[in-house]
């Protein structure tokens, strides 16, 4: 291998246009599997959600899950695709132990949805249209766990465990057309596309689309071509890039690697690549020459799927407000900038904020709590905002207590802490922890008197006109009331007692 | 008394049981005794489920004693082709690769048989994975033809047909992908029907070629076949290709045989070179008989039928190459070479090498090749086009006639071993039966005499349009009655004693 120089991203883009193709698999959240009645509960004991059909036992036959087809059609419609009048399943033949029949029931040249597009919004508000080639239905495989190897990979393992609970779970594979013209924004476009697709899938309610749980998985195809040329270069296919950040990094890293190989006068090998989260780089997988011939042919055990036009139109009519439209509407309602909206999205705060506003909070307050204190805590715990054990209703109640002056921000944070710690709802936490602002004149007056008595020198300065020194006494009052005093009122009382006017 | 029970038709035996003249247990015991006595010679069964059969018979008797309304075949014993899964009872499909496998579930057909009170005596022998026309491809040894034990009983369902012809069971279940019910019926002097594709559920029927496979009834009379047909047919939500429509009135048709005014077409392409003289002679007599009985007989041209065999030997192997991929030694059945040093791929490879017979391997390789990138259009694609042409030939023919007739097989039973080294000669045994599979039509074979030159049974094939299975029985019953009147007895009376 020739020693080659690492090419910077900027240098790579100076010579080449990147061309991307993204293949995303979405695991549908149907109650039962694609071709049998087995449950799809996550985390069940190995091989407890199986039957003759999904185990591929001799004689067993598949039956199509109607909800799976409906979800596929709805995804297709939301992606502005044409829905096939008539299409078939096909068998993709290859041997692998986690695939019980040694063929995957999929679709080949007759996908249920084709020729669509998805408009995605970049950080600066620019809209980029990603053309969709097709969306098709298929089944997931089982899961292999390789035991005894150092890396958890099959290489070096002494044996493997097979769990077929996942085998037969419905998948929708969504394939883009080659994405050209993104230039230096290719990594950002890739990320924005996957992100937008995820929002879309969630809005449709067909899957939670949690990438970290494998409910949404992305393969990144990438090639480079010199500026001004039409022909695509040889591509690499980076498999299983399973977070938004990784999608962006994988594109970036492959652009640089391709440029490096091309700059050295070598040829890109058509192959699959493994992506490593830790380094953000890829290593070679299977070469094209080793690639299997899947011998696709129409699945004879299933009848063709022919979605009735009226049904398709009914589904189209019942599509939910799509994410980009919804974001635009909310942005206007909340009166925030595109950039601020982007931050809300990046934090995964859109739904919680919306729900909190729905529960009565002011948009600014809802945004402030979710994007501030709660985002910080979610980040600390490494969970998503929505996973925090606090509901939008509870956040709205905290905001209401602040708005009516019963809590200040500092106390509100303590209330949130209490709710997150499982001490109950906001009112219960306020009650149990005794977190009401002390605005009761008697208690506050006593604390002010104590502070003056304990700091005679400071009191003297204030009497002498040094009003700024009052801060020290306010601090003492706050300390004595453990932060529960209304600081402004305390200052007012101190000045009154000492005969000066603020 | 007990040997007499085994000579009865299913309908007669059922009537006796219903009348309380005999019990289901006695019927089962009589047949088990017959199996005991003759099956060492015939080898119709791969597995006899004595305990299961007696338990089932006892249950039928108990239900009847309790006054329950039972089906028209309750208590009648049956031989079930070893291609149907039977919960807890060995199911090998005639292959080493499934040796020792105990299915955890019943096929829909198995379930329906049990529900009808039909007593399953055991699992009948077959060509491995139903691939063959002689039952010589069974991994467990061939079955003898009760007419001459040195000859083949047809295939793949030779075990079922031989069990009927040797009076080990009055009923049997077969499957027909290219003729595996009809050709064995023809060469053993019994009756077999391939129902319309989708008429009988394929759930739990181990797949050979999914778009062609069809389970169906076998018996010694047309009426018995119809009664069994009715018991196993009907829509099954577990089989997507099962037809959601009422079962054609097959029993009523079998009870009212008639061909008066019926338009019968003789398929021009299913005769000529390669057809045994005696077969053509008996077939000609059957056509003459139909005319005498009032049918309007014409010759029908089906030009694409000449390409049927070639198309079949691309489609069936293609589907089988995929269907049989699941036999990898990892989850059930045979596992070879797993000594801890070998990879899963190596163990799968060794298992398949040891577990599959030569014919199965040949077809897997043929099919894998036909589906390969670059060859798909020329082979699988062209075969599908021929399939469409054959369907059109049928459509055109059924626009002019009500049923088609032909010999079921070009020859009578050939000697065991004669064609084992010549796959193409073996494939020719299905020449007449394959078109109906490719088009999904219903078809029957029933006896039309013995070939003069060898004294062996000849079958008459009747083909009806899809979902007109009742026509087969209406015609078959009329032909059967007329022939028996002419012969003075059922044809099996002429078979030698075993």
TrEMBL record, chain A:
Catalytic activity: L-glutamyl-tRNA(Gln) + L-glutamine + ATP + H2O = L-glutaminyl-tRNA(Gln) + L-glutamate + ADP + phosphate + H(+); L-aspartyl-tRNA(Asn) + L-glutamine + ATP + H2O = L-asparaginyl-tRNA(Asn) + L-glutamate + ADP + phosphate + 2 H(+)
Domain of life per record: Bacteria
InterPro entries referenced in this protein's UniProt entry, alphabetically: Asn/Gln-tRNA_amidoTrfase_suB/E, Asn/Gln-tRNA_Trfase_suB/E_cat, Asn/Gln_amidotransferase, Asn/Gln_tRNA_amidoTrase-B-like, GatB, GatB_Yqey_C_2, Gln-tRNA_amidoTrfase_suB_CS, Gln_synth/guanido_kin_cat_dom
Keyword Cell membrane tagged: no
An example molecular function term from Gene Ontology annotations: asparaginyl-tRNA synthase (glutamine-hydrolyzing) activity
Subunit structure: Heterotrimer of A, B and C subunits.
Annotated protein name in UniProt: Aspartyl/glutamyl-tRNA(Asn/Gln) amidotransferase subunit B
Taxonomic lineage: Bacteria, Bacillati, Actinomycetota, Actinomycetes, Kitasatosporales
UniProtKB/TrEMBL annotation, chain B:
UniProt superkingdom: Bacteria
Keyword match Nucleotide-binding: yes
Substrates-to-products reaction catalysed: L-glutamyl-tRNA(Gln) + L-glutamine + ATP + H2O = L-glutaminyl-tRNA(Gln) + L-glutamate + ADP + phosphate + H(+)
Residue intervals of the Amidase domain: 26-472
EC number: 6.3.5.7
Protein name, entry field: Glutamyl-tRNA(Gln) amidotransferase subunit A
UniProt entry tagged with the keyword ATP-binding: yes
Role of this protein: Allows the formation of correctly charged Gln-tRNA(Gln) through the transamidation of misacylated Glu-tRNA(Gln) in organisms which lack glutaminyl-tRNA synthetase. The reaction takes place in the presence of glutamine and ATP through an activated gamma-phospho-Glu-tRNA(Gln).
Active site residues per record: 81, 156, 180
Family to which the UniProt record says this protein belongs: Belongs to the amidase family. GatA subfamily.
Origin species: Streptomyces aidingensis
Subunit details: Heterotrimer of A, B and C subunits.
Biological processes annotated in GO: translation
Stored Gene3D superfamilies: Amidase signature (AS) domain
Alphabetically ordered keywords of this record: ATP-binding, Ligase, Nucleotide-binding, Protein biosynthesis, Transferase
Gene Ontology terms, MF aspect: ATP binding; glutaminyl-tRNA synthase (glutamine-hydrolyzing) activity; transferase activity
InterPro entries: Amidase, Amidase_CS, Amidase_dom, AS_sf, GatA
GO cellular component assignments: glutamyl-tRNA(Gln) amidotransferase complex
């Amino acid at each position: 291998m020739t020693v080659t120089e690492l090419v910077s991203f900027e240098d790579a883009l100076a010579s080449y246009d990147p061309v991307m193709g993204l293949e995303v698999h979405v695991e549908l959240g149907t109650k039962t599997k694609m071709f049998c009645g087995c449950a799809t509960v996550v985390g069940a004991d190995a091989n407890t959600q199986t039957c003759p059909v999904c185990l591929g036992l001799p004689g067993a036959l598949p039956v199509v899950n109607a909800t799976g087809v409906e979800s596929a059609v709805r995804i297709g419609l939301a992606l502005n695709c044409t829905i096939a009048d008539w299409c078939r399943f096909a068998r993709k033949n290859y041997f692998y132990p986690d695939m019980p029949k040694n063929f995957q029931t999929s679709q080949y040249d007759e996908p249920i949805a084709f020729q669509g597009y998805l408009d995605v919004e970049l950080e600066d508000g620019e809209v980029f249209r990603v053309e969709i080639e097709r969306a098709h239905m298929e089944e997931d495989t089982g899961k292999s766990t390789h035991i005894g190897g150092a890396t958890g990979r099959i290489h070096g393992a002494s044996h493997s465990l097979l769990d077929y609970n996942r085998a037969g779970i419905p998948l929708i594979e969504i394939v883009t057309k080659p994405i050209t013209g993104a230039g230096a924004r290719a990594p950002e476009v890739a990320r924005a596309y996957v992100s937008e697709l995820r929002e879309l899938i969630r809005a449709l309610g067909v899957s939670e689309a949690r990438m970290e749980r494998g409910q949404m998985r992305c393969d990144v195809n990438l090639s480079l071509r010199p500026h001004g040329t039409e022909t695509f270069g040889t591509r690499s296919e980076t498999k299983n890039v399973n977070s938004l950040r990784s999608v962006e990094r994988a594109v970036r890293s492959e652009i640089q690697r391709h440029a490096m190989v091309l700059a050295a006068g070598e040829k890109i090998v058509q192959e699959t690549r493994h992506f490593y989260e830790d380094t953000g780089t890829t290593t070679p997988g299977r070469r094209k020459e080793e690639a299997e011939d899947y011998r696709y042919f129409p699945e004879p055990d299933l009848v063709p799927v022919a979605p009735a036009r009226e049904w398709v139109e009914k589904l189209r009519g019942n599509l939910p407000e799509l994410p980009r439209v919804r974001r635009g509407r909310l942005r206007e309602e909340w009166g925030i900038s595109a950039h601020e909206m982007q931050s809300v999205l990046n934090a995964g705060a859109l739904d919680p904020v919306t729900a909190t506003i729905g529960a009565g909070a002011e948009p600014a307050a809802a945004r402030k709590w979710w994007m501030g204190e709660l985002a910080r805590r979610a980040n600390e715990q490494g969970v998503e905002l929505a996973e925090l054990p606090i509901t939008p209703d509870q956040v709205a109640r905290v905001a209401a207590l602040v708005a009516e002056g019963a809590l200040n921000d500092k106390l509100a944070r303590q209330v949130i802490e209490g709710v997150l710690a499982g001490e109950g709802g906001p009112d219960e936490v306020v009650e149990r922890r005794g977190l009401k602002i002390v605005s009761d004149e008697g208690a506050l007056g006593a604390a002010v008197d104590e502070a003056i008595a304990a700091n005679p020198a400071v009191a003297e300065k204030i009497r002498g006109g040094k009003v700024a020194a009052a801060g020290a006494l306010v601090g003492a009052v706050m300390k004595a009331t453990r932060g529960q005093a209304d600081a402004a009122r305390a200052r007012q009382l101190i000045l009154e007692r000492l005969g000066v006017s603020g | 008394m007990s040997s007499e029970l085994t000579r009865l038709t299913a309908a007669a035996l059922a009537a006796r049981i219903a009348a309380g003249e005999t019990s289901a247990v006695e019927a089962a015991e009589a047949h088990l005794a017959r199996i005991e006595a003759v099956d060492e010679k015939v080898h119709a069964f791969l597995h006899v489920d004595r305990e299961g059969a007696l338990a089932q018979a006892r249950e039928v008797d108990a239900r009847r004693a309790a006054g329950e309304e039972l089906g028209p075949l309750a208590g009648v014993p049956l031989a079930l082709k070893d291609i149907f899964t039977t919960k807890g009872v060995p199911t090998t499909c005639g292959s080493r690769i499934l040796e020792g496998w105990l299915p955890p579930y019943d096929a829909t057909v198995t379930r329906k048989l049990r529900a009808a009170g039909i007593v399953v005596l055991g699992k009948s022998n077959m060509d491995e994975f139903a691939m063959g026309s002689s039952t010589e491809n069974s991994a467990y040894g061939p079955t003898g033809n009760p007419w001459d034990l040195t000859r083949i009983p047809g295939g793949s369902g030779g075990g079922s047909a031989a069990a009927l012809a040797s009076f080990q069971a009055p009923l049997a279940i077969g499957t027909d992908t290219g003729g595996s019910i009809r050709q064995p019926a023809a060469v053993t002097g019994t009756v077999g029907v391939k129902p319309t594709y989708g008429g009988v559920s394929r759930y739990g029927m181990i797949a050979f070629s999914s778009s062609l496979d069809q389970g169906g009834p076998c018996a010694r009379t047309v009426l018995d076949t119809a009664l069994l047909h009715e018991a196993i047919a009907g829509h099954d939500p577990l089989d997507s290709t099962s037809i959601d429509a009422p079962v054609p009135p097959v029993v009523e048709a079998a009870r009212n045989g008639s061909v008066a005014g019926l338009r019968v077409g003789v398929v021009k392409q299913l005769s000529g070179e390669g057809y045994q003289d005696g077969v053509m002679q008996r077939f000609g007599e059957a056509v003459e008989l139909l005319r005498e009985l009032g049918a309007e007989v014409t010759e029908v041209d089906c030009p694409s039928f000449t390409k049927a065999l070639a198309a079949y030997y691309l489609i069936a192997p293609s589907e089988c190459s995929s269907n049989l991929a699941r036999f990898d030694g990892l989850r059930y059945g045979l596992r070879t070479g797993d000594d801890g040093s070998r990879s899963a791929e190596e163990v799968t490879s060794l298992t398949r090498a040891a577990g599959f017979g030569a014919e199965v391997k040949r077809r897997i390789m043929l099919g894998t090749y036909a589906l390969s990138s670059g060859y798909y259009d020329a082979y699988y694609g062209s075969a599908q086009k021929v399939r469409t042409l054959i369907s059109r030939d049928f459509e055109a023919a059924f626009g002019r006639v009500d049923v088609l007739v032909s010999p079921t097989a070009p020859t009578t039973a050939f000697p065991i071993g004669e064609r084992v080294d010549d796959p193409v000669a073996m494939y020719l045994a299905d020449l007449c039966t394959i078109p109906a599979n490719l088009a999904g039509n219903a078809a029957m074979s029933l006896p039309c005499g013995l070939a003069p030159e060898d004294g062996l049974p000849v079958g008459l094939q009747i083909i009806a349009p899809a979902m007109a299975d009742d026509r087969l029985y209406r015609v078959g019953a009329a032909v059967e009655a007329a022939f028996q009147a002419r012969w003075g007895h059922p044809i099996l009376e002429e078979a030698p004693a075993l």
